[in-house]
Amino acid sequence: MAKRRGRVIFQEDRCKGCELCTTVCPVDIVKMNKSKINVKGYHPATVDEMEKCIACANCATICPDVVIKIETIEE
């Protein structure tokens, strides 16, 4: 059986830093990038450990501004 992973893509300049995506990740890899400020003046969401992404799409589903896209990778 193939292992399912994903790649999270953020449109960082549209993120308003609401942090909703960080609350629904079952593997706790979605974080706020405290070292970056986007064009709107917010810390955007990011993923540091992309290899742990299971492509559940919870973050993309909860995002009110539709700034997150998930690419599924089958191994």
TrEMBL record:
What is the protein name for this chain?
Answer: 4Fe-4S dicluster domain-containing protein
**Which terms does the record give in the GO molecular function aspect?**
iron-sulfur cluster binding; metal ion binding
Range of residues in the leader sequence: none
- The 4Fe-4S ferredoxin-type domain, residue ranges: 6-35, 43-73
Keyword terms = Iron, Iron-sulfur, Metal-binding
Metal-binding is among the record's keywords: yes
